């Protein structure tokens, strides 16, 4: 088994599957710090605001652990892990409304025009990441394949974002339509994170397909669990700092709401329709309906099934610490 020098982790020498979670976290922190704007005014100020405080780096961790799970080098994947998170942050900046990570979104805090420019700058960082991995010795074909994966994910996400707008206020839409939208909104990115890590790590086609399937199913489980956060009794805000009423005020029909509407009686349906159109919906009423109709339990079951199938996809990979870390990736706690 080859030994690899990983420059971003203090020049320590490690075999592919020996990196501990603490070392990976430290390497990611260092890599993010290297890309953080040095200036605190102008464009640098806007970009720093968008990135700090950071959310949990789910996609970067998926990318890194996927590469390590197939025997890849940490330094070969770190730039893309960080660059893809910059691209994700760009989407939040462009789409930002209300509260993000417990504070006003960039357009509200610093203005819409600076937000657009900063978001574009963050998107361009991903292209620079591809250059950096090529400079570190990643084969050109792997770099090109990573670009293809990112391009296809971006196209699918664009369709998902548009579909979400089209679903606004539609409590009668089929669950299948919602799941297709959620796939484009979230699962395409987690799939791309795992698949790009696999490619940069030198995976064979079967390993790359297994990690892509894991990422896709994990993303679906993640999105459904995230939908459930706003409906937890007594919670004023979700885990990512978004107010619990945000989806209702934006008329976004989350999976629990759709399931409750399907299962509810006439009075319950009328209450849900009012909640989706009123400026100050009664969260307690909505939660009671979700509980009484079994919608929350059904949504939890659907998320659990996606998560079970995600971990089953990992059975096609050799046993390793990296594979175990993927199988233990966190999900929002409903």
Automatic annotation (TrEMBL):
Organism: Actinomadura keratinilytica
InterPro entries linked to this entry: Isoprenoid_synthase_dom_sf, Polyprenyl_synt
Keyword entries, A-Z: Transferase
Family, per entry: Belongs to the FPP/GGPP synthase family.
Stored Pfam families: polyprenyl_synt
Chain segments carrying region Disordered: 1-21
Gene3D superfamilies assigned to the protein according to its UniProt record, in alphabetical order: Farnesyl Diphosphate Synthase
Keyword Transferase: yes
Keyword RNA-binding included in the entry's annotation: no
Name listed for the protein in its UniProt record: Polyprenyl synthetase family protein
